[in-house]
Structure formats: C-alpha cells, structure tokens
Amino acid sequence: MSRYALSIALKDLKRIFKAPLSLVSMLMLPIVITVIVGFTFGTSGDVKIPRIKVLLDDEDGGILPGFIRQSFQKVGSGKMVELVDTKADEGRRLIDRGKASAFIVIPKGSSSALLDKKPIEFLITKNPSELFLPAIVEEILKTDAVMLDGAVRLFGEPLDTVRTFLKGEHWPSGSELSRVFALARRRFVLITPYISDSLITVQTVRAGEKNEGGNFFALIFPGSMIIGLLFISMIAQRDIVKERARGTLKRVLSGPTSAGEFIIGKVMYNFFLTSISLIVLLVIARLVFGIGVKSPLALAVVSLGTALLSSGLVILPYGLIRSERAAVALMPSYIIVLCLMGGAMMPYETMSRLLKEAARYSPVFWVVDAFKRVMFLGVDMGDIMRNIEVINIVGILSILIGTAVLKRRAAKGL
CB-hemisphere CA count at 13 Å for 131? Predict the structure, then answer.
C-alpha cells in the first residue's frame, strides 16, 4: 500500500470529520426512514401480508392430511393461505418456476404411521426467491407436527382401543365403550385449560407488548441503511470530480503522487468512510431499535461485503462521469433506481412477480436480503453464503474496474 494513497485517504477522512454536516445528514436518512415506516405500520396499523400460495401433494388421503388442511384454513380465517392440490411432478415444476411459496408432500401411509407411533417425514420445498412467506408455511407445518405428536402420545391408549374395535368382527360392548370414553375424558379434562375452540390461533401483538418473533424494525432498517450508505459513498467519491473540475488534480499530479496513487487513495477513503458509517448505523440499530443478531460472524462478513459493494457501485459510474454537474444530476437517480429495484425502498415481498424476478439482478437486493435474514430471522453464515458470494464478487469487480477507469482518465487529465 503506497504511503501517498494512505495519506490522501486519511486527509480526506479528517476533512469530512471537521465539517460533518453532509455525512450526518446522510446517516440520519436511514434512521428517519426506519422510524417513520416502523411506527406507522408497527404501532397501531396492520401490515398486510400477501396471500400465500401453498401446493399440496396428498399421497396419503387419511386423517393426517385433513388435519393439515384445516390448520392452513384456520390461518387468517382462510384468507391468508391458498391451498392448491397437485401431484409431485406438477408441484416441483410450479415451485421451480416460482409459482407458489411452498410445496408440501405428505407421503403415503402417513396417517397409519402416525397412529402406530412411527416416524413420519414431511417434505416441504420453499420458494428461494421469497423470504418470509415460505417461513410462515414452514412454521405452520412444524406447529402441526408438534400438535399431532402430542395428541397421539396423549390419546394413544384410547386410540389403540378404538383401532382394535375397528379391526374386530364384533361390535364393542357397552362396558368397552364406557372404558374408552373414560380414558378419553380424563385426557380432555387435562388439556381443556390449554385449548380453545380452534386448534391453531393467531395472536396479534401490539407495540409495547412482548413479542417472541423478530424485531419489526429489522425488516425496515436493512433497506434504509443501504440507501444511506450509497449516498455517503456518493459524497466521498464526488471529490474526484470536484478536484478535476477545479484544477486541484493537476496540481496534485505535478508532485510525487502518481495518478494511480491518487485514485487508490480516493477509493480507500470511500471504503473507510462507508465502513465507519456502517458501524455507526449498526450500533444505532442495536441501541435505538433493539435489533440483535444470533450470529455476529455472519453480521460482520455481510457488513464487510456491504462496505465493498457500496463503494464499488458508486466508484464504477464515477469513472464514466466527466463533470460535477453531471454527477449531481445522475448519481442520485442511479442510486434510487438501484434501491427501488433491489427492494430497499419497498418490501420485496410486496412486489409483483415481474419485479421480484428483476430485483435479483440488482446488487442491492442481495444486501437487503442478507441483512434481513441475519437481523430478523437470526440465520447463521451458512444460510446466506450465496448472498455473501454475490455481494463480494460484485463489490470487488466494480471497485477494480472503476479504479482502473479512473486511473486511466486521471493520467490523461480527463
């Protein structure tokens, strides 16, 4: 690392910290967005969740699939989940094309295996292009599994007796039926305090009450954070255009500093400033919004990649911009389009199918998606490896290409 490049980066950092108005205003942007959106939808309003389309391949046809159907129909009074019967091949084809949120397969013989207290495995295939809707389906299915397991264990003896009657050739006597009813009654008495008229209920938690789920602000903050970081990166990189327009660049290059060292110094300054800003925003997320993570390592890796990507996405277009006026006119629009397309300005889950497919071509999508998974769902690094790969590859490539273009133009005095 050239000492001249490092000197330029540190000098620019000291300069912006002495006059931090523009930096502070950009740091306030994600905070204000998060507060407004969070308190608008999180205190008294209900957030509308799109209707969840679930494909079901019922290979069993017994009582177990019927229970699962009922549980999905109970959610949101039947308005939240659309359950579509399909076969295995058709279900896999539809889920591969992104036509549903999840595809559930109930194997043949599941009902009999349940009553025989044998292990059963449900297969659920989740749509990888959706984040929260498949997770809702998975949680409903896991809840069903726990309830069915508990019911079979609790009512095992009366159920076995009834099955014995059904297999026999004679009608059970009154005393035998009374014994079954007595066994079942004692168990119903035990569980009555814990059940209501519905097997599955949905609890609505208002602001100020304890919520076992993820922090609602963790859904909003990642998108608003990347918006702020890109604008901060824009402020840092705009110095190159300013110094070129004002003749400062020619004076710098007339000394011992080469064009390459000057540009590398500016790129380092951009990366350092973006990284510091990201750390500040993450501290605010923890202290102000109470956003925690289960995997600090995953957060650190995503944050490092985000700093690289935020710098690279701004450095690259600045290599093509010739004037300060063009930079002021074009860069904000460029950032807004990236963020709008990538789900930073509107929730990805509420986008149309066409926009969802287009969003994956925006690098911003991979950042927002990774932070949501880490902050809201609490996943570890293994669950976001694809995000990390895309973020770092795009970030490093854009920095290398943008730096090369800027170095060539600086050497020519353009």
Answer: 26
